[in-house]
Amino acid sequence: MRAVIIVVCALLVTLGGAAGGGDDGSGFGVASARAEPTTQALWRTRCAPCHGVSGRGFNQRAQRMAMGDMTTEAWQIEMTDAHIRDTIRNGLQRVKFGNRQAMRHFKGKLTPAQIDALVVYIRGLARGAAPQFRWQFW
C-alpha cells in the first residue's frame, strides 16, 4: 500500500510540474517544456536546423558561425532569459570571434507563449537541468 501511495504522489508531482511549470529554478518548467510535444516540434523545426537537436551547435552551420553550446553552464549563465527571448523575437546580426552570426527573427511567426516555452526548453538543454527523482521505498 505504501508503494502505491508513493507512486501516486510521484505522478501528482510530475503532472503538477507539467501543468504549471515555470522557470523558477525548480526544474519542473524544464520537464514540462521537454514533455510538451508542441514545444519539441517548435524546437525541431525552427531551432534545431541551426542549433542542433541537442542545442550543442556541432553541425556545419553552427560551427561556421561560432555558435555557442547551449548545454554548457557558461552559456546558460551568460544568456539571460530576456536576451534569449529578444533574440528569438527579433533575430540577431553580429560579428563574434571574427565570425558573422545571423539568426532570423520569429516576430509574428511565434506567439509570446511559444517564445516563452522555447526559453524554458533552452534552459532545459543544460546538462543536469532536468529534475532527478530518486525513488525511496520504506
Write the layout of secondary structure elements.
Elements: H1 2-20, H2 28-35, H3 37-51, H4 60-64, H5 73-78, H6 81-90, E1 92-96, E2 99-103, H7 112-123
Antiparallel strand pairs: 1-2
What is the CATH architecture descriptor of the domain at 29-123?
Answer: Orthogonal Bundle
Taken as a percent bin, the fraction of beta residues is: 5-15%
What does the radius of gyration come to?
17 Å
According to CATH, what is the class of the domain at 29-123? Mainly Alpha
Order of helix and strand elements from N to C terminus: HHHHHHEEH
Helical residue percent?
40-55%
Structural class: mainly alpha
CATH topology of the domain at 29-123: Cytochrome Bc1 Complex, Chain D, domain 2
Shape summary: globular
**Total helix count?**
7
Quick structural gist:
The protein has helices at residues 2-20, 28-35, 37-51, 60-64, 73-78, 81-90, 112-123, and strands at residues 92-96, 99-103. It has 138 residues and is mostly helical.
Walk me through the structure.
A hairpin with a 2-residue loop joins β1 (92-96) and β2 (99-103). The protein is mostly helical and 138 residues long. The chain has a domain at 29-123: Cytochrome c-like domain (Cytochrome Bc1 Complex, Chain D, domain 2). The chain has helices at residues 2-20, 28-35, 37-51, 60-64, 73-78, 81-90, 112-123; strands at 92-96, 99-103. The model is unreliable at 3-34 and 130-136 (pLDDT under 50).
